[in-house]
Every structure is written in C-alpha cells, then in structure tokens.
C-alpha cells in the first residue's frame, strides 16, 4: 500500500502520472490521509482543479482508495517530522509515519525528509 499526497492523487485522476509513478501505483493499493479529501474540495472551490465532487465516477474512483482518519497519533507524530510545511502536507507525511506506509509525492520538502517513509 502507498500513501498518496494530494497532487499525486490529482495526477492519477487526470492521467498525468509520470512513468515511474505509474509503475509504483500499478502494483499496490492506494491510500490517502483524510485531509486530502478536504484539499480536493478546496482546490475545486478555488478553481485550481476542475473536478465535480458530485460526479459518481469520482465517487467510484475514491471508493477504491483507503482513507486514513485524522487521529491523535497522526497529530502527535507531526512533532517528529524533520521539515516544516503547510499543515496539510505535515498531516499527510505524519500519516505515512504513523502507519508505516510509504508516501508517494513530488513535493521537494517531503522528499528530503529522513523520517517519513517514501515510495
């Protein structure tokens, strides 16, 4: 299982994954932090992505993705991160840390982490 950050999930939804990302995602199940759903809604509301949150096809796509809840262990793990970023990225990274799930991201800050398990 891999934990996807928001941008990787959006790229997967739009078919804009890089070849290496496609290979990684092809052989495993996907998961996201619950905060990714909030970010999708915010990006859509701000017009930064075009997605219909009421689309049944989107619902089917997301139903196949495991959603990790925002829980106290994740919030506590944020203090163990070795980088500072926006709270959503820190929650996504801490989710990977708590559950031992490799994170798939393009974010340079997250990719430099020595603490977060990376795909």
Which descriptors apply to this entry?
Rossmann fold, 50% helix, 119 residues, 4-stranded parallel beta sheet, alpha/beta
Fold blueprint:
Layout: E1 2-4, H1 6-14, H2 19-26, E2 30-33, H3 34-45, H4 56-63, E3 66-68, H5 72-77, H6 87-99, E4 103-104, H7 108-111
Parallel strand pairs: 1-2, 1-4, 2-3
Please characterize this protein's 3D structure.
The protein is built from seven helices and four strands; from the N terminus they run E-H-H-E-H-H-E-H-H-E-H. The chain has 119 residues and is an alpha/beta fold. The protein starts with a strand and ends in an 8-residue tail after the last helix. 27% of the residues are buried.
Structural class: alpha/beta
- Average per-residue pLDDT, rounded, comes to 96
Into which percent range does the helicity of residues fall?
A: 40-55%
CATH architecture: 3-Layer(aba) Sandwich
Give me the strand/helix succession: EHHEHHEHHEH
Q: What is the tally of helical segments?
A: 7
Short description:
With 119 residues, the protein is of the alpha/beta class. It is built from seven helices and four strands.
